[in-house]
From TrEMBL:
The keyword Cell division does not apply. GO terms for molecular function: DNA-binding transcription factor activity; sequence-specific DNA binding. PANTHER family: HTH-TYPE TRANSCRIPTIONAL ACTIVATOR RHAS-RELATED (PTHR46796). This is AraC family transcriptional regulator. Residues 198-296 form the HTH araC/xylS-type domain. SMART domains: HTH_ARAC. InterPro entries: AraC_XylS_family_regulators, Cupin_2, Homeodomain-like_sf, HTH_AraC, HTH_AraC-typ_CS, RmlC-like_jellyroll, RmlC_Cupin_sf, Tscrpt_reg_AraC-type_HTH. The lineage of its organism: Bacteria, Pseudomonadati, Pseudomonadota, Gammaproteobacteria, Vibrionales. Keywords: DNA-binding, Transcription, Transcription regulation. Pfam families: Cupin_2, HTH_18.
């Protein structure tokens, strides 16, 4: 049964602390079947994330960007980038990933190295994610280097944190050497659209338990309903109603797993006025009733 749940705050920011203040970095070995909804839902974090596909295929989505990663490929997700991962392969996809604070690469924040080499990329609104392919020699070398660091972390080899830090620093340096345009200041034509969509997504995450309409969601971003529909379809491949429903169902599933609150009360807390409608939508999403889901979650 799925047991991972990405907990976020009202703005969609992930709440998990990755590593600690002494070493702000954490490694994860995960299969999509272990996630509560069978996917890594839309979320963002201040940390950078490097994901390597060990088995299967995964689709990585950011705002206005969709990338399908094959086994052996890797992706770097920028700080603050809203993103989602789904399993699109024939087998249960397994990903190895490291989530780390940008300051890990240079030591203290806002020293010269941080200012010169970190800030330009993490503050570039046009940079959301970058794919590394083993078909490109310099990228293959980096993938192999990161894979060795992941292996050292898993076996707790001597100074595995140093190996991880070194591998991440090599990725950063090589990315800058081969893709210098990413470090240039680039006004993004999509930045306004992204800000509007981000505002609506954060509004939904904050108010999903309330009675929401497309008009109200659109009003929060100062746009029309038709523009609201267009932005959601273009960036997230769904309607605002569908996104709201997914958020409500995801929170309901979490409450079913972690509390003994009555199903009807969970429906109400998650914005469903009709328990029968909640059960119908839950069954369609998880292929079982809420009560059965709770029992299997044990």
């Amino acid at each position: 049964m799925q047991n991972y749940h990405i907990e976020t705050d009202a703005q969609g920011r992930e709440l998990v602390q990755h590593g600690d203040d002494h070493y702000p970095c954490a490694f994860y070995d995960e299969r999509f079947s272990q996630f509560m909804t069978g996917e890594v839902p839309w979320h963002w974090h201040d940390e950078l994330e490097l994901v390597l596909v060990a088995e299967g295929r995964t689709q990585v989505e950011t705002l206005e960007q969709t990338i399908v990663l094959e086994q052996g490929e890797m992706i770097l997700v920028n700080s603050g980038a809203l993103h989602r991962l789904t399993d699109v392969g024939a087998c249960d996809c397994r990903i190895l990933n490291v989530v780390f604070a940008p300051k890990l690469l240079t030591g203290e924040r806002f020293n010269r190295l941080y200012h010169d080499y970190i800030v330009p990329l993490i503050s570039n609104p046009a940079f959301r994610a970058y794919r590394f392919s083993p078909q490109i020699p310099w990228q293959r070398t980096l993938i192999d280097t990161v894979a060795l660091a992941f292996g050292a972390w898993q076996t707790r080899a001597f100074a595995y944190e140093l190996l991880m830090s070194s591998a991440l620093a090599q990725c950063w340096q090589q990315l800058g050497q081969h893709e210098p345009q990413l470090w240039a200041s680039q006004p993004s034509a999509a930045s306004t659209r992204e800000k509007r969509l981000s505002a609506m997504v954060k509004f939904i995450e904050s108010h999903f338990s309330e009675s929401l309409s497309v008009a109200g969601i659109a009003r929060h971003a100062n746009i029309s309903e038709s523009e609201c529909f267009r932005l959601f379809k273009a960036a997230l491949s769904c309607t605002p109603n569908r996104y709201l429903l997914d958020v409500r169902l995801r929170h309901a599933a979490h409450l079913l797993q972690t509390t003994r609150i009555a199903v009807t009360e969970i429906a109400h807390q998650c914005g469903f006025n009709c328990p029968a409608y909640f059960t119908k939508q839950f069954r369609q999403r998880f292929a079982q009733t809420p009560s059965r889901y709770r029992v299997q979650s044990g």
